[in-house]
Amino acid sequence: MAERRVKVESEVGLHARPAALFVGAAAKAGGDVTVAKGDGSPVSAKSILAVMSLDVRHGDEIVINAESEELLDELAAIANAG
Amino acid sequence: MADTLSGVGVSPGVGAGPALRLVRAVPEPPSGERHDGDVAAEAARAADALERTAEELAERGARAGGEAEEVLSAQALMARDPALADDVRRRVEEGTSAARAVFDAFTVYRDMLAAAGGYLAARVADLDDVRDRAVARLLGVPVPGVPESAEPFVLVADDLAPADTATLDPGRVLALVTAEGGPTSHTAILARALGLPAVVACPGARAVTDGTTLLVDGAGGTVTVDPAPELVERSRERAAARAAAVAASVGPGRTADGHPVPLLANIGGPKDVPAALENGAEGVGLYRTEFLFLDRADAPGHEEQVAAYRAVLEAFPGAKVVVRTLDAGADKPLAFLPPSAGEPNPALGERGVRMMRLFPEVLETQLAALAEAARDTAAELRVMAPMVTDEADAAWFAEAAAKAGIEGAGVMIEVPAAAIRAAHIAATAGFFSVGTNDLTQYTCAADREVGALGRFQDPWQPAVLDLVAMAAQAADAAGRECGVCGEAAADPVLACVLTGLGVTSLSMGAGALPAVRAALSRVTLQECRAAASAARAARDAEGAGRAARDHLPGLAELGF
């Protein structure tokens, strides 16, 4: 497993379009993908409801865990776009 | 013997056909409901209902495109949520029925979102919609929404929400009947815009069952159940005669004695331009720009805005196009304009220009895009601010417009305080446009969407007419124009009264333009003034309408 800490630069945080893109990308990957807000408990990054419930806002730090660095790159890019 | 239900006619015309009800409420599966023991079969039913719901939402999204697609595909993701699916399976394994398991699993997330407040709380409605669709499939009851039917039908509902209208196919709907709602409800506005006959505030509609034949008279405000074929024929002939008289009215708006009253269109985007031109609009009196901003994660950029404004300005060379700057607020939350701390009463909160004063860069971007769109088109661009309350609001907006190079910025008169002190506001505002829907809501302290307050949501309320008169007089004294762009302008009789009150132009949904043009052409300015005085002297809305009609004899032959 690989881990990445990302400061969310997306204006709307991990909601709306970024949330849908984030979950869509995680769901396509094999294996577990989790995301946590700061040092909170991780939730499945494949669950839109779990990700929305984290209520990640612009400027929050998230911790993503996944099996590959490529997937981490993709997810981090989504969290920083928009 | 045919039964006749009475309501309020809000959009003229006659429609007859089988009734179909809009389904909104899906029954809640009883708490603690158990299945018959076959866990595997029950879990498969639940999974299948969720997957089919996801497919349907994704399909509808692909059909709708644009921002609607974004919302609908997010909803499809909710239906396919693996954490939700696990929770449903666990509940079914414990013996809970598939329908109740789905309901309970959604409730967990629903409560979480609702508790978070703000943007997340606004997503609760999206989540509830997904839940209701999945539960309806499991219970074998109709899926909520506008019914689908190959045969044209009369749509019957308690009330229509803006979301319902997105899926309504005007080619399949013959008429609208709602139990609730008033003349300014979404149903009324939609019906007039689409030219569909409509009767609202018709409590008898609740008892109508699917398939019953209804005859809807949108002028008289009546709904006949199982009408005799001769009655349908007669009603259609009468409506056709009126429609012919209305269609025969062409040219710019003016009274019988030649007093000009420019007739303009209310539009919500470039898509409404063809209907405005077809109905002879002399310009645009209200260009609502919210469509560019709603249901999206980020603010539209400069180029996107310029294109949307240019598309409208190009259609009206030499004519006036009045653009209302973004009217956002707590009841229409935007992802990129975070609402301020909890507003218990959004209608009285930070909306319209109040919101823009918190986020001036959003207004700056919009004004700059408007100025650029106007530079290479021949239309006469004007801008106006919503929810202006006092002279400071008007001055702030005029300064922002001037900085963008737009002269003659005007204000909407929707807040009673602005109407009462219109003389002061006229000093800085280039023109007035009275928004009668909100002005009525605020004058009578009656929420537009609360059906039980229909009596107060009537722009015929003499107090509302008094405020319109104050604004029009103040504008005239300052040499300014004072238009009306609310639904009141779309009522042919009220349009004559507004003219008599001193209103200088009328803007409405395009479908209403021909009838208003025909009405004006049959009355004199003197008659309009007499009707206005009589209406203001009345004690209630109904009396005001009656008194006005007595002074407008030319309208009787049109059946208004």
UniProtKB/TrEMBL annotation, chain A:
It comes from Marinactinospora thermotolerans DSM 45154. It is found in: Cytoplasm. InterPro entries: HPr, HPr-like, HPr-like_sf, PTS_HPr_His_P_site, PTS_HPr_Ser_P_site. CDD domains: PTS-HPr_like (cd00367). Residues 1-82 form the HPr domain. This is Phosphocarrier protein HPr. Transmembrane segments: none annotated. Keywords: Cytoplasm, Phosphotransferase system. SUPFAM superfamilies: HPr-like. GO terms for biological process: phosphoenolpyruvate-dependent sugar phosphotransferase system. GO terms for cellular component: cytoplasm. Gene3D superfamilies: HPr-like. General (non sugar-specific) component of the phosphoenolpyruvate-dependent sugar phosphotransferase system (sugar PTS). This major carbohydrate active-transport system catalyzes the phosphorylation of incoming sugar substrates concomitantly with their translocation across the cell membrane. The phosphoryl group from phosphoenolpyruvate (PEP) is transferred to the phosphoryl carrier protein HPr by enzyme I. Phospho-HPr then transfers it to the PTS EIIA domain.
From TrEMBL, chain B:
Residues 151-221 form the PEP-utilising enzyme mobile domain. Its cofactor is Mg(2+). It is found in: Cytoplasm. The active site is at residues 186, 485. InterPro entries: PEP-util_enz_mobile_dom (IPR008279), PEP-utilizing_PTS_enzyme (IPR050499), PEP_util_AS (IPR018274), PEP_util_C (IPR000121), Phosphohistidine_dom_sf (IPR036637), PTS_EI (IPR024692), PTS_EI-like (IPR006318), PTS_EIN (IPR008731). Residues 7-123 form the Phosphotransferase system enzyme I N-terminal domain. Phosphoenolpyruvate binds at residues 288, 324, 437-438, 448. This is Phosphoenolpyruvate-protein phosphotransferase. It comes from Marinactinospora thermotolerans DSM 45154.
